[in-house]
Amino acid sequence: MKYLFLLPVFLCILACEQKPKTLFTTLPASQTGVHFQNSITENDSFNLVDYYYVYNGGGVAVGDLNNDNLPDLYFTGNQVGDRMYWNTTKPGSDSPTFEDVTDKAGIQKGGWSTGVTMADVNADGLLDIYVCKSGNYAGSRRKNQLYINKGNFQFEESAERYGLDDTSYTNQATFFDYDKDGDLDVFLLTSTNLVRNPNQVTPVIADGSGLANDKLFRNDSKASGPRFTDVTKAAGILHDGFGLGLTVSDFNQDGWEDIYVANDFLANDFLYVNNRNGTFSEVSKSYFKHHSQFSMGCDAADINNDGLPDLVVADMLPADNEQRKKMAGAANYQQFESITRQGYHPQFMRNMLQVNGGKAADGRIVFSEIGQFAGVSSTDWSWSPLLADLDNDGWRDLVITNGYLRDITDLDFVSFNDSFAQGNRTPEEINAYLRQGAPKMPSIKKANRFFRNRRDLTFDDVTATWFGSETSLSNGSAYADLDRDGDLDLIVNNINQDAYILQNATANSHYLQLKLQGPKQNRFGLGADVTLYNNGLTQTHHQAVTRGYQSSVDYIIHFGLGAAKTVDSLRIVWPDGKLQTLKKPGIDRLVSLDYRQATQTARQPEIRPVTLLTDVTQASGIRLTHQEESYLDYNQEPLLPHKLSQQGPKLAAGDVNGDGLEDLFVGGSFRHYGKLLIQTSAGRFIEKPYTDESQPKDEEDVGALLFDADGDGDKDLYIVSGSNEYYDGSEYYQDRLYLNDGKGKFTAATDRLPAIRHSGSCVLAVDVDKDGDLDLFRGGRLKALQYPLPGESYVLINDGGRFRNATDELAPNLRNVGMVTDAVWADIDRDSWPDLVVVGEMMPITVFKNNRGRLVPLSLEALKGSEGFWNCIRSGDFDHDGDLDFVIGNLGLNSRYRVSPSQPMRIYAGDYDNNGRLDAIATYYLDGIEYPIASRDELGRQLPLIKKQFTNYALYAKAKVTDLLTPERQKISTVLQACWQQSVFLENTGGSFRLQPLPALAQWAPIQSLLVEDINQDGHLDVLAVGNAYDAESVAGQYDAMTGLVLKGDGKGGFQPLLFPQSGFLADGDCKFIVGVNSPAQRLIVVSVNNGPLKVFQPRKN
C-alpha cells in the first residue's frame, strides 16, 4: 500500500510510451473552443440510394475576418448547421483558441452545405464568405449563400442581390480575375443527383448541355456594387462532369489564370486554359496523358522549386492488400477501350502527381504523372490533398485527408446486392433494401497521410512521426498559422467526430510570411505570383486560396527557410503585370506587400534556351504514321501483365540504294506493311514500299535489320515476326529475308532462312565465327498464348548467303534463355571475338562469351539476382577505360510494384485446372508478404476453381501466395521472377561488372530503346532514351511519364539527365525505337511511336 502513490507516475510513463510525440498535435475541443462535428445520419431523404454524395462530407475556410492578423474559421455542415469561429489567441499562447460567433454573425441554418471559400467579393477590404449548397433537396433549398462582411463579425446573406444564388448541385467555388478587368469573377464546381449511373459509358457532352456543367460568373461591377453574370457557354465552359476538386493556377505561364477541375466517375478531369480574350479552351488531353479515375480534391503548387506549377489529384486506391482485394473487380478491357473510343481520356484509380515539364515548341505544357515513383499514389479513400511546407525546410510537403463513412465498394456487399436485384425484384424493393443495408456497412476509417518532400520528386511517408495512427473520417482541410508562431497548422472537417485543429510544433527553422495588399478591387491580391530567392534556392507561390477539397486556405503566404538566416529578395508580379521587388525582407516575421509600391511591368519576351537537339520532323519530309490494329490479348490470357501484340514499329538504318545516303526502314504491323524511307541529297525522305503489297499482311514486324546477307556489298533486309496473335507454331511467326539488287529493289528470299515458328523480338548481325560473313542472333520473345514460356532464340550461321540454325551446335544454352527483348554483340574481354549480352522480361542479364565461335554462358557474380523487366541494351565505352560498358532499359520505378532480390515479383505458371492451358499467376510483396496481384474476379476468370476455394472476396483478400498455390500446385509451377526494375548502367571493370541505377529521371517510365551518341560533341558518349508502355493492363494503367531523355555522359561513367526544355528532345507518346541516320548536312535522330507519327531530331552543331 505504501507504494500506491507511485501508480500515477507509472501510468503517466506508460501513456507517454504509448503515444510518442509527433510533429502535429491534435488539440482537444475543450482547449481550442472548436466544438464542430459534421454528424451524418442516414434517413429516408439522405441515403446512398437517393443521394450518392451523402458521405462526401464538408469543407473549411480560413481567413482573417476582422483584420486582426489572426485567421478565423468557417466549417460547413451537411445535416448540421455551419459554424464560424473567431480566433481569440493571445500573443505568446501555447495553442490557438477560438470563440463560436455563428449566431452573432447571422449564419443561416438549413440546407446541405458543401464547399466554402473566403474572398473580398465587394472590395471593401473585408473577407466575405461564399457557401456552396447541394443535397437531395429541391432547388429552392440548394441556393448558394454569400455572406457579406459588415465588420465585427456581422454578416449579411446577399447571394441573390449579387447574382450568386445558384441552385445547381454545387461543390465549391473559386474567386479569380479571369478577364483581368481588376475585379473578382467566380467559377462554380458542380455535380448532379439526377443521373442514376454516373459510370455508364455515354458520349462525351461538350456543348454546355450537361446536367453537371460547371459555371463561370463574370463580375460586372457597377457603382452600386458587384453583380455577377453567368457567362458559362460564352466563355467556353462546356464540358459535363462530376466536379469534386477545383484549383486555379497559371499552368502555361502566360500570366493568365487557368482552371483545373477534378471529376469523379466517368468524366475525365478538365483543364480550361485561359485564351486571354474572355474565353477558355479545354486542353486536358494535350497537357496530360491520363487522369485519376475517381478524382476527388486537388491542389496546384511547385513541388520541386523549378518555378512551374505541378498538380496533385486524390483518388481512392487503398494502401494495403486486403482493402484493395475487397474492392477490386475484374479489369474490363473492352470497357476501357470503349471509353477511350467515346472520347474520354485514360483514367486509372490512384492519386496522380503531375509534374510540369515546361512548354513544348507547339505551346502545350507537357506534364509527367509520377505519383507511383514519388510514393504518394495509394492513400485509401482520399479527399483533400494539400501541398504546403509543413516542416519549414523550403520544400512543399503533402498531406491528404482520408476516410469514408460506409464501405460501399466492398465487393461482397456489392455482389450480394446484385444477387438480390436479380431475384425478380421491383426497383422499389431494391432501393428499400439498399437504404436498409448501407447503414450496416462498416466505415473506412484511416489515418490522414503526411508525406515529407525529399527534394528529389519523391516523398517519405511520415504519417507515424508527424501525426500518428489516429483514424478518422476526414474530408475538407486547410492550412494556416493559427497561432502565428511561424509554422503551418492544419484544420480538418471530420464526419461524426470533432474537427481537427492540428498544431504544428516545427522548431529550429526559419520562415517568412507575406500579407498582400492588392489593388482596389482585389484587396487580397488573388492571382499574384510571388518568388522568393535565397542562396540559390527559388520558391514560388501563386495566390489562390481554393485548394484541396471543398475548402480554402489562409491568405497569408508562408515560406519555410530551413536554417537560412537571410532572404536575398522577393519578386511579386501582381495580377495586372505590375512588378515589385523587395531586397532583404528579413526573416521570422510577417511582411506586408503593397500593390501601390509596384512600378514596372513584369512580362518580358520569352527567351527559349539553346538546346542540344531540334525537332526537324516537318523539314525531313517524313509523314509516316504507324498504325496498330486493335487486338485484346487479354481475351485469350486474362492474367497477362501487359499486351504482347503492340511492340512496333522497329527501325533500321542503312544505304539501300547505293547513293551514299542512309535510308530508313520502318516496320509494319498486322494488316499494315512496313515502309522504306529513301533519303534525298537535300536530307529529306521519300516513302516507298519494299515489297508487293497486293496481298494481305498477316505478320507483325517486331524487329528489323539492314545488313549484307549475301556478301554482294549492299544492304539486305531481315524482318523479325512476332506478337501474340497466333498460336505458337504458326507460319506467321516465320521471319522474312529480302535481298537487295543494289538499287533498293528487294526480293523475298523465302529459301534462305530456316523454319522459325516462335514469336521473336530482335535480330543482330556479327561475324560470330570469323569466316568473313555476317551471322545472326535472333531473339525469341515467347511461346505465343503460353505466357510466360520463352520462345526459342537462335544463332543463325551464314553459309554463302543461306542461314542455318546452329544453336544446338554453338550455343545450346541460348535456345531457351528467356523471354528475350534485346541483345547486343560486344567484345567484353577484348579478345577480338564478339560476345553476346542478352536481356529480356523476367530474366537476368545474361552474358555469353564467344569461345572461338561457340557461345558459352558466363556466371558473373555481379549479375546474380539481376532478373528484371529488361527492354533494351546498348554498349559503349562510357568511362574511357578501353572496354565496353552497357546501358540497359528496364520498367523503372513509376510503377505499383517495388521489387528487390529479397522481395521479387514472381510469375507462377502451370496448368492448375488441367484444362490444357497455362495459367500465369503474378505475385508481389507488400509489407513483407507475398500476395497474388490479380483480383478474385480476374483470377477466377482464368481459374474458376479459385472462386470455389475462396468463396467470398473477404477470404481472398487475406490470401497469401502459400494459400493460393498449394505444395502440389507449386510442384508443377514454372517460376520466373524480377528483382530489378531500375534502368541501369552496367560498368565493365575489366573482368567483372558493376550494376548501378541510372539517374532518377530515367526511372519515370519503361525505357524501350536507347541510342549511344556523343550528342554535344565533347568527346564523351551520351545516351538518348525513349520509352513508355501503353500496352499495360488497364488496372495498373499505361506507363507514359517519359518525354524523351538525354543522359549527358561525363566520361567517368556518370550521367546528367536533361529533359526536353534543356535538351530539345521531346519524344513523348508510346515510343518504341530510336535510331541514328546519317544525312548530308548532319546526323539525324529518328524515333518511332506506336500508333503515332515518327519524330525526327537534329543535333545542334558546335
TrEMBL record:
Domain ASPIC/UnbV, chain residue ranges per copy: 525-590
InterPro entries hit by this protein: Crtac1, FG-GAP, Integrin_alpha_N, UnbV_ASPIC
Pfam family, one: UnbV_ASPIC
SUPFAM superfamilies, per database record: Integrin alpha N-terminal domain
UniProt KW keywords: Signal
Matching PANTHER family: CARTILAGE ACIDIC PROTEIN 1
Protein name, as recorded: VCBS repeat-containing protein
Native source organism of the sequence: Larkinella humicola
